[in-house]
Structures are given as C-alpha cells and as structure tokens.
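Example 3.2
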Amino acid sequence: MIVLSHQDIIELLPPRTAIDVVADAMAATSRGDVELPLRSIMDAGGPNKMGIMPGMMRTPPCHGIKLVSLFPGNVAAGLSSHQGAMVLFESVNGTAVAMMDGGPLTALRTAAASAVATRSLSRPDSTVLAMIGAGEQARNHLHAICVVRNISELRIASRTEASASAFAEYARRHYPHLTIDFGTDIKNAVAGADIVCTVTSSPVPILKGEWISPGTHLNIVGASIPSRREIDDEMVLRSSVFVDFRRSTFAQAGEIVDMIEAKRIGEQHIRAEIGEVLNGTRTGRTDNSQVTLYRSLGIASQDIACAYHCWEQAKVTGRGVNAPL
C-alpha cells in the first residue's frame, strides 16, 4: 500500500489535471459505468458530521471508500472544514493499494467539478467571477475556474471583511492581472457577474434569485446535506438546473428536496447531469440569456478517479510512503 500525504496530493493532482480526471468520471457516471451507493451521513457531535462514500468504477477498474469529517468550526481555527481519508482498492484481487489524505482530494475534485460545469455551461466569453465565501474552497475554485475561463475580474463576498481581504490578497499574489473587489455585500458582488460560485458553510440561503443577471452561470457548492441550503427558491425557479448525479440530488440537495416536497417543482426541473452534457445525450446552455446552475454535491466516482490518478502517478514518480500489508 502507498500512503500519500496532503502535499503528495497537491503535487500529483494540479487543477488542470484534476479537471480532466473529474470530467471523465462524470461522463462515466452518467453512462452507468459506476456503482454509487448514496453517501451515508452520521452525527459526530454538535454541528459536526461524518460522511461515508463508497463507490466502484469499471474504467479504470477500481473501487474505494472515502471517510470524511465535516467540522464547520475548523475554519475559525485556520483548518479545513473537511478532514478525512481515502482508501483505494484494485479490482482484480480486491487489494487495498493506496491510502491518502481526503482533505485536499475533496477540495481539488470539488473545484474541478465546478470547473467542468463552468466549461460546459457558462458563456465562453465570461470574464467576471463572483466568489461567495473566502476559505479553502474559494481558493481552489479560483484556480480551477481560471483554467477554463479567461477571468479578468474577481469579486469576493465573505462573512467578514477580514476573511474577504485575506482572500483578495491571496488572489493578487497568484493572479496579479485581476481586478479585485471584496467585502461582505453578496448582492453587490453578484450583480452583473458572469460566473458565481457559492462555497460557504451557511445553513440558510444567502443568495437570492432576484439578484442574478440573465446569462449568469452558478456553481452552488457549499451545502452538502439536506438540512443546509445556500440559495432561495427563486434562484432554483429562475435557473436551468444541472447536477452531478440525480439520485444524490433528490436525496441530499436541501433546496431541491424541499421544493419537490412542497410541489413547487418536479424532478423534471433537473435539466441534466453534467455527464450527460459531456456525453452529448442532453443539451447544456441554449442561449446567452439563460441562467444555468450546477448543483454540486460531490460523488464518490470523482474521488475514486482522482485517487486512482494519484496512485498511478505515485508509482511513476516515487512519491508517498510504501506500507507493506
């Protein structure tokens, strides 16, 4: 077994590579070439949760499980809210071949999935990115979105002026050409933006549909359990909604679950899985005034594909620590 650290994952899975790996995984998911039991979630004390995410892929032939702790209070301590481990198995003898830090794996694949959706659904001439949230996912999303679109302006809205300012400074160091505006006003940040990413831990809606301009593409990322939601009903109603996996959406996307139960929308309101758009079996954006929304939950096939890539590259490059079973 190869054990891969946080830094190993960062080195082996740069954003551009992660985007290609995740795109292939999402296409395979929509073709039915994977097995994806729904994520199980258990309480881990107070607001903390633990997720158990198993899955299997036919190509490449492997299976695995990610165990991830969601501790929202970590952010105040300067730590990632997502902590965990990924175990990868080969599918010939069922041997565990790698274990790796699940934190960076989750962050990188989540941002990569948003970038895949952005490349598929946003207007190609999109240049203005609004980031709602200023933590680890905001940083990873900035890198990933800049791979697929020629971003020239970044607007940041965060819960505090200090966190928004810190993220703005980070963005300036990495992308000195960007025009950057930051603060705590979400409405102002999203007005006229081409691409909006919500990457917060808010349990209640922070983004209203009435604030969004025609033609905007949104990546709604932060709420991963049914009791949380970042957007209001109007945002769902105004948007053409695309998802990573229908089964998980109908079970775990809070705003979709709530609105279906209230009979405000039906399951047909989901236009397509991103993998279906990639495979050419469903259409994406149809005109420049359409508001497109990618509702991200994260699926195990994304994790497994990224883990497999890291394992393969670790064997080639010699990264990681060998731990004989």
